[in-house]
Design goal:
The protein is built from eight helices and two strands; from the N terminus they run H-H-H-H-H-H-H-E-E-H. By secondary structure, it is mostly helical. The protein has a two-stranded antiparallel sheet with strand order 1-2.
């Protein structure tokens, strides 16, 4: 099984990751525009992490580097998906707080971007607010940030597979390709 997975070329892993990013963004946009769930600041930052992962993996589909060069795409995608895992984890933590420990609601993201420097906005968003602690959707007993974290975990696994596949191919040389 591992040997078959290592035979998948960089293009295949990047394509799989890009499709996962498209799926995650499609679900987020459907929840926002069809069901009217407004994203909180942490949700928006998680979307940015999905888009960053997409932008990292997309060139790999066209470039399809040989050998160890493919690991560069994997490492970059692992960093962006790891950031998404951290953001979703922070969001889950805020949702797990008792009501009296939840931070008060802060200003909206648009307002913060207008009046605060960029790093101040990041600091404010990561500290969380009351709106990030509200639970608006649960499916199969898991909140939306939990599902998002699982999506980022899948992206991280794809990134790790891309790294190992690229390094293994770099050691062995070219072989029959899948995808």
């Amino acid at each position: 099984m591992i040997d078959k997975l290592s035979r998948i070329i960089c293009r295949g892993w990047c394509l799989l990751g890009v499709l996962m990013c498209i799926l995650m963004m499609a679900v987020a946009l459907l929840l926002e525009h069809l069901w009217g769930l407004e994203p909180c600041p942490l949700c928006i930052f998680q979307r940015i992490a999905v888009i960053a992962t997409f932008l990292v993996l997309l060139p790999g589909i066209f470039h399809n580097p040989k050998g160890k060069a493919g690991a560069v795409y994997g490492v970059a995608a692992l960093i962006t998906s790891g950031a998404g895992i951290a953001l979703a984890g922070r969001h889950l933590w805020l949702q797990s707080l008792p009501p009296d420990a939840v931070p008060s609601c802060g200003p909206g993201l648009d307002y913060m971007l207008e009046v605060l420097p960029f790093w101040g906005v990041i600091s404010q968003v990561l500290s969380g607010s009351g709106e990030c602690a509200e639970i608006h959707g649960i499916w199969l007993g898991i909140t939306l940030p939990g599902w998002t974290m699982m999506g980022f975990a899948v992206l991280a696994l794809i990134s790790i597979a891309l790294i190992f596949s690229s390094l293994r191919r770099g050691r062995r040389g070219p072989s029959k390709r899948l995808l």
